[in-house]
Design brief:
DNA polymerase, domain 1, 175 residues, 2 domains, flat, alpha+beta, Ubiquitin-like (UB roll), 12% strand, 5 helices
């Protein structure tokens, strides 16, 4: 029996320790957004996040995932998903959940990736060859995330400034 924390929920599964995580998630838990592609960890269709890092799960034994935070495409809430739609990335769509998971992991590690960063990190295969659109979407998501971060920082700075201005002054107080 293994306990897995997936998308914020705990699941108990009874499988062999060497069962690939992909099959546990798809067959035992019914989360079918993550796809099977090659079965040897080459194509990336099976990509999930383990502790925020993109991992190919068709070759990862379920036992290796115990105690980690797992995220599937069903549990992802990321700007890259909006960018995928905005830039009309999917063609057949089969690889897209893995591509999105890999892109979100890249943006977590490298918030402002260059084309070279994208090329080095995005090793998932796309049989429709939408690599140009994938790159555009990643840059777009990076820009959107940066704008959100700047807005959040501006709000925090304004709140700090406001609290400093309204705080009672210690000037003239006796020790």
């Amino acid at each position: 029996m293994f306990e897995l924390k997936i998308n914020g929920k705990t699941h108990q599964v009874e499988v062999e320790a060497d069962t690939p995580l992909l099959w546990v998630v798809r067959e035992q838990l019914g989360m079918t957004g993550t796809k099977f592609g090659c079965g040897v960890g080459a194509c990336g269709a099976c990509t999930m996040h383990i502790g925020g890092t993109a991992v190919r799960t068709c070759i990862l034994p379920v036992a290796a995932a115990v105690g980690s935070e797992l995220t599937t495409i069903e549990g992802l809430d990321h700007a890259v998903q909006d960018a995928w739609i905005k830039h009309q990335v999917p063609q057949c769509g089969y690889c897209q959940s893995g591509q999105i998971m890999a892109a979100a992991s890249l943006l977590h590690r490298t918030p402002e990736p260059t084309d070279a960063d994208i090329d080095a990190s995005m090793s998932n295969l796309c049989r429709c060859a939408t690599y140009g659109a994938i790159r555009e979407a990643i840059h777009s998501a990076a820009a959107d995330l940066a704008a959100v971060k700047r807005a959040r920082e501006a709000e925090e700075a304004a709140a700090l400034e406001e609290s400093t201005e309204t705080a009672p002054s210690d000037a003239g107080a006796s020790p």
